Amino acid sequence: MESASIQEIVQKGCRLGDIPLLKEVFKSHPQFLNQTDTQLGWTPLYRTVICGHESATRLLLNLGADPDVKSKIGETPLHQAAYNSQYSIAKLLLDYKANPNAQQNDGDTPLHHAAFKGDFSMAKLLLKYNSSPNIPNTVFGRTPLHYAVDYGHSKIVKLFIKHNAVTDIEDIGEKTPMDLTTNTDMISILLKSKEPSELASSIDNSFNSISSIDANPNYSQQFNSKFSFISQTSNYNYEKGLDLYEEKTDKYAENTEKTLDVASIPYHGRSVSSLFEPDAEKSYSDVRPSNLLTDRARIISFGGNDKKSALYSWISSVKLEGIFDTLISGGYDDLGQMIASMKTSLPITERMLSEIGIKKPGLRRRLLAALDEEAKSFPKKGKTQESNPFQCWAASSSNTGLINLQNLKQWLEKLNLSHLHKSFVDAGYDDMEHNLALMNSSWFITDDILLNDIKITKPGHRHRILSKLKEECIGFETMKKNNGRPSFKKCAEGLIIEKSSTSSACGMCLLM
């Protein structure tokens, strides 16, 4: 099996938290355990953590996953666990020696995230594992204490001071934490803290220990030597890692419940939020061997983040699952806000999507068309949308085109242009139903798009394609999966009619 196909299996297994699949694929292909994807630099462990699968996270760690591999923006799995208030997963990563002071490209540590959000329980957990409140980020030169003060999280400020936070570190604007607040209670807390001179030795020791970790290229190797089941190449011991996973699962869950101050953890961090697996994720027949196929119901969780769950469910419904990770990484993780922005004077643009890493123009335009469709579907305030019994069936919520829909390859073969198939796929126009639906949207395919995006240089070929798209696009009105497509039959006179519907075809449809 090709490397790309195996990586796709791994990514899907991690998104779903599919432990049987992950066990099987890593047994045969252990070299993929710490491999990053080419687009975002995510490891299987990072993807599993971001989707909130604790058991799958534990499995990967036991099999030898390195918790300190960074993504392209410098994030480790612990950064994501801290940002999403995943307390049990964060503790699990820390128990497997994840670096609590790892810095992103902008210099933020996991503790910066906890301070910014005011997550006391996460801050307390990170500090217990020697996270430092005195590390400035590289963008603003601010420490976690700066953020805790600036956002008024007095409880966290007290916690940081208790753990030797230095109160007079200046950011790049020469502001100390005290310069960022006018709150008298906060100022009082800072004034009551220890004098910086009394902390000098402890701070030096703290920075020395951090520097020794970051400066030591053999850090991961030293960590691996402590756990014989962890390996990077030839020392890989799958069976031992699997045995350890099975042995520790129940015991670890029990110890975690005792260790974490569960009563103090906010409900939003412990909520069980999940969605049923989308249709597109129920089968791996396109990428994995038949002996791996299963047809069982499963639930996919995003670690209590309902916004991510809603986004994934929707992105699957418009057949664009492949860009889900990119959207999350780029900060487009709230479907409601994305749809709402399309109705403002500053909507999401192709340029914005290109900047976050969606390189194929077709994928960008298909996403924007789908968002536009959702934005237009919201009825105006105070009005409800009534059904029209005389509505043409070609304008229904599912695609009811007059043609028998073919895939892109078949469609191009019909035009004697099969050699252009790769050009369409490379540009992100690989879904024929979407291509036809785009023609009925604001994001329709034009001659310029065929020339500049799909790289079709011959004018005659472009004209042939556009003519056929315009001819066949009638009835293709939605970007959503057409799972319930109605069936049609020809009457004696040769007109196409719907078998079971109260809707009738309009005059234009009859003419067509």
Notes on the protein architecture:
This protein is mainly α and 512 residues long. The chain has three domains: 3-262, Ankyrin repeat-containing domain (Serine Threonine Protein Phosphatase 5, Tetratricopeptide repeat, Alpha Horseshoe); 313-377, Transcription Factor, Ets-1 (DNA polymerase, domain 1), CATH 1.10.150.50; 393-486, DNA polymerase, domain 1 (Orthogonal Bundle), CATH 1.10.150.50. It has 26 helices and four strands. It has helices at 3-16, 19-28, 44-50, 54-63, 77-83, 87-95, 110-117, 120-128, 144-150, 154-162, 184-191, 196-215, 219-226, 238-259, 267-270, 306-317, 324-329, 335-341, 350-355, 361-377, 408-414, 421-426, 432-438, 447-452, 459-472, 507-511; strands spanning 274-276, 299-301, 488-490, 496-498. A two-stranded antiparallel ribbon has the order 1-2. Strand 3 (488-490) and strand 4 form a beta hairpin. Helix 4 (54-63) crosses helix 14 (238-259) and helix 5 (77-83) packs parallel to helix 7 (110-117). The longest helix is centred in the middle third of the chain and has 22 residues, at 238-259. It starts with a helix and ends with a helix.
Give the helix/strand layout.
Blueprint: H1 3-16, H2 19-28, H3 44-50, H4 54-63, H5 77-83, H6 87-95, H7 110-117, H8 120-128, H9 144-150, H10 154-162, H11 184-191, H12 196-215, H13 219-226, H14 238-259, H15 267-270, E1 274-276, E2 299-301, H16 306-317, H17 324-329, H18 335-341, H19 350-355, H20 361-377, H21 408-414, H22 421-426, H23 432-438, H24 447-452, H25 459-472, E3 488-490, E4 496-498, H26 507-511
**Number of E-type strands:** 4
Q: Percentage of helical residues?
A: 40-55%
Oligomerization:
single chain
| Outline type | globular
Mean pLDDT: 75
Which value, in Å, is the CA radius of gyration?
27 Å
CATH class of the largest domain: Mainly Alpha
